[in-house]
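Give me the fold.
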Amino acid sequence: MNLVLIGYRGTGKTAIGRRLAERLDMEYVGLDDEIVRRAGKSIPELVDESGWERFRDLEAEVVRDAAAADGRVLDTGGGAILRDENVAVLRRNGIVFWLRASVPDIVARIRGDDQRPSLTGRRSFTDEVDDVLAERKPRYSAAAHEKVDTSELSVDEAVEAIAEIFENERKPSKDA
């Protein structure tokens, strides 16, 4: 069984995912890191040179490969849920946690990150976050087994809350 983290960029997936992997003695896999490794270039470079569709194709390949193994914490990119096949693959052998945060918290967390290309190429940074998040919320909600708001939790508090849910969910049922 895998533990899968989904959510918009800046909700804490990487920091929480790395600590969860340590806490649960599981392998951590950052899917964006794997995309960069396979592409041989940064995500902004890949998107600039090949476009979002090529990025999403490579992302789907990485999702399939990463989810095929067991006992991993999978830190997905914020848009991994945009393709139904990714969601199906992640849910098949994983408990999916949607990490959420308020728009002001997300903006504060990611404002200086130059490894995250613009998703819309227009409007202000805050408007972009607000617009894209509103568009994706139904997909995040549909994909998730569990929801955790990271705006009011420290990384350690989020790790403990998620670990407790995960450990309880993966225990075999007495009726099984």
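The CA atoms of residues 19 and 159 lie 7 Å apart.
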